[in-house]
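I am writing to request your help with a piece of structural work I have in hand. What I wish to show you is a protein chain and, alongside it, a tokenised description of its three-dimensional fold. Could you please explain, in whatever detail you think fit, how the structure tokens follow from the sequence? You will find the record immediately after this paragraph.
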Amino acid sequence: MLKLTLASLAARKIRLALTTFAVVLGVAFVSGSFILADSLRGTFDKIAQEIAGPGWVQVRGVETIDGDEFSRPLVPEELINELLKTDGVDSAVGNIQGFPRLSFNGELIDSGRAPTLAFNSTPGSELTAFITLEGVEPGPGEAMLDVDSASRYGVSVGDKITVRSQSEPEQFVVSGITSWGEDNGGGAVFVLFDTATTQRLFGYDKTFMSATLGISSGFVVESVIADLNPLLKGLDLEAVTSETVSSEFSAEFDQFITIFQNALLAFAAISLIVSAFIINNTFSIVLGQRIKELGLLRSLGATGKQVQASVILEGLIIGFIASLIGLFSGIGIAALLKILIAQAGGGAGLPDGPLVIAGRTWIAAFIVGLVVTLAACLSPARKAATIPPIAALTDNFSLSSKTTNRRSIFGGLLGLAGVLLIVRGVTSNSGAKGQLYALGLGALLTFLSIALLSQLVAGPMAKFLGWPLVKLAPASGVLARENAARNPRRTSSTASALMIGLALVAMVLVVGTSFKKTFSAALDTSLKADYFVDLKQESFIGFSPKLAQDLQNIKGIETAVGFRGGEGSARIQVNNAAKDVMATEEAGLGLIVDLSLSEGSYSGLNDGGVLVHRDPATDLDLSIGDGIMATFPVSGSQNLRVVGIYEDGGILGNWVIGMNTF
């Protein structure tokens, strides 16, 4: 039977190739997603190790707002000398990070979607990830630029670059070329200044974001940290190991990588479902063509189980070949995705690193390929076992299906469950995550239900839709219509594979159009401004606060209002929960945006007031005049007073405060 199975596959090479290709795409997406995710994790883990070298200790503020690194209290400059007095501390440097905008010869030094980061240089210290490749460390009026940016924009030592922070633009002479570790951070722009300049540019008056300590040989890091804690406790500071810093850095990127990987796996799952329909249909059709062949095997003494095993073996061979090809195709997909991400990021790309093919990728590829193929061919294989020897002598023998009623009942139950889940997802208040899970599972069950029940209407629909063909081409039209209507189950199975693709296209179009219409409606109803001033380059710092005042003085401008913060960039702590906040000016706000105020007014926003969206106001049982104790990154706790409750949070979010409050 093994030789016969192999001979059968060899005799039908085109069918083997096409059936194999149906599985290859899904396996390729699965393996490609794992390869890319593992490669990125390995690369970012390497970068994380370069951030904090082995045996280093970092002194930093205790996090006051969950998930907001910039909410940590700052390290006083004079503390550095005190840290050096601790036994085991061999060296100490302060660290500052900022977000500038750079230009050279009038051209913006743009990193695409990767950040532009500024750091203070630490001359003569080994407590840094930066490597000097050319020139010297910067002094007053000087800067060092990373090697990739210097090469991309033709910047050399001695050239002048313009630096914009929240102060007036300044020119700096490039004193040297640097690199963040060996890979230069994967597309980000890095610029270094001397410590005093960095403090001035980014508002760190005699303070640092953190301090890095080098530990003398022979001392245990944990013991040194224990000695440091009494000195740091009263300052809301903490000392952590380099391993802690590295693991936190890796964990932040791992969240993004996991989301990206799951998105790819979702596409892979869809592709595999389509493949399963195609394989099942292919085996069913081929089985109908091989009835005499299999009947002859039965007449020669082969048992039904042997025939069934032969069909399953064909499926497993196809699955194995598809898994192997799909695995290596996944390597190409991972490499292609890195290129596409680089193009989407304006050339910034991802950190350079080898593609990692972990053991789990091999296992996942072969499990997916074999299981999908096996599941798809089980039903045809069971039918093959029922072919009697007499089929070899009969011209009109056909396989009958006795499972129509069971399929219909099962399909109906799946459809009912799917509809109930969709209704739950639309109407429940279990949160966005719970709603998405309910909607996703409900949509999947509904689709499977339609696929199972479609055989009930496939015959009548084929005859109805084939009627015009009969009129246009009587002979071929009749053959096509009757052939499609003759086996409704086969027709519905073939249509189901196409149905998935059409459903996906329809979903993308509907979701895309809905987002576009919703966003356009929000702009039309919520925004009153005629113009918006935005950055050409993505940055965390925005404009100088003086810009809105300067714009206000331009003839023809009735009002100009500045905004600070927004989702993920500015947070306060309310009831031990981090809240994204937007800061703005009371004067002129109503001329720029329409928040649909339902209670209160904008009055008092600049005097410790806060505007709250209806949803959090309801959750926290807030009314006009109520006080809220909020924790701010720098100024600490403040008591805010609710001056207004609004309905439209699409533009400014759920929490709005005065600019001077922030």
